[in-house]
Specification:
Radius of gyration: 17 Å
Largest sheet: 9 strands, mixed
Strand content: 15-25%
Shape: globular
CATH topology: Carbamate kinase
CATH superfamily: Acetylglutamate kinase-like
Low-confidence stretches: none
Order of helices and strands: EHEHEEHEHEEEEHHEHE
Number of strands: 11
Structural class: alpha/beta
């Protein structure tokens, strides 16, 4: 397919840790990670340059680790290490189906990943390698959502696609409230004012400042991410 058909030429895909395991599960599921890799390959075949930021919630989420004698900063670093595990597992799975990838980590793990350097990541993208970004921003107290916004801005991406377990942004949790209303489109300011919980406020504010469009969609719907790249109306679009 010609790249000319794509609305977005350099998307950043944000994948939560939960995407790596079965619903309600823990760790990594072979079937789930293979499905992720196939979705990434489908995007890559559109002809653009693709960056991927992975979360680590399938192993540990620092903000939710409520152990009194483990400091919050330490818990956050544990979460960063979890994202590295997800990133290298995704790398192997992608390469098993013919994709060339590079893992760049914001914390130093030289045995398994390259160090995050913006210009290095840019060169990999230009060589049509899928860049998988691990360890968030490398700093505690920041989520991988904020990392996705930060890296997308640094890399000059033209959209952030947040692949989740729901088909867009709702005014309240659709899994708990039958009357939850889904938005087709919402502004950054509306999202912040209404406290819509699809992404943390720091990430939304960064995107608003840099006019970085966000899309939230269901990663389980076959072809949904591809349709988003082509500019079709899917999920929820958050923009100025």
């Amino acid at each position: 397919m010609s790249l000319d058909r794509c609305k977005y030429k350099r998307p950043l895909l944000k994948i939560s840790g939960e995407a790596f395991c079965e619903a309600g599960g823990f760790g990594i599921s072979g079937n789930e990670i293979l499905a992720l890799a196939k979705s990434i390959k489908l995007l890559h075949e559109l002809g653009g340059q693709l960056a991927v930021v992975v979360g680590g919630g399938n192993f540990v989420r620092g903000s939710q680790l409520k152990i009194p004698h483990i400091q919050r900063a330490t818990a956050d670093y544990m979460g960063m290490l979890a994202t590295v595990m997800n990133a290298v597992s995704l790398q192997d799975t992608c390469e098993s189906i013919g994709l060339e990838t590079r893992v760049l980590s914001s914390i130093d793990v030289p045995s398994v990943a390259e160090k995050w350097i913006r210009r290095r990541a840019m060169r990999h993208l230009e060589k049509r390698r899928v860049v998988i970004i691990a360890a968030g921003t490398g700093n505690p107290h920041f989520t991988t959502d904020t990392a996705a916004a930060q890296r997308a801005i640094e890399l000059g991406c033209d959209v952030i696609i947040k692949a989740t377990k729901v088909d867009g942004v709702y005014d309240k949790d659709p899994n708990k409230f039958a009357d939850a209303v889904r938005y087709d489109r919402v502004t950054y300011l509306e999202a912040l004012q209404k406290g819509l919980r699809f992404m943390d406020a720091t990430a939304v504010a960064l995107c608003m400042e840099h006019k970085m469009p966000l899309m939230v969609l269901d990663m389980k719907v076959e072809g949904e991410i591809k349709r988003a790249i082509l500019g079709e109306k899917v999920g929820t679009l958050i923009e100025a």
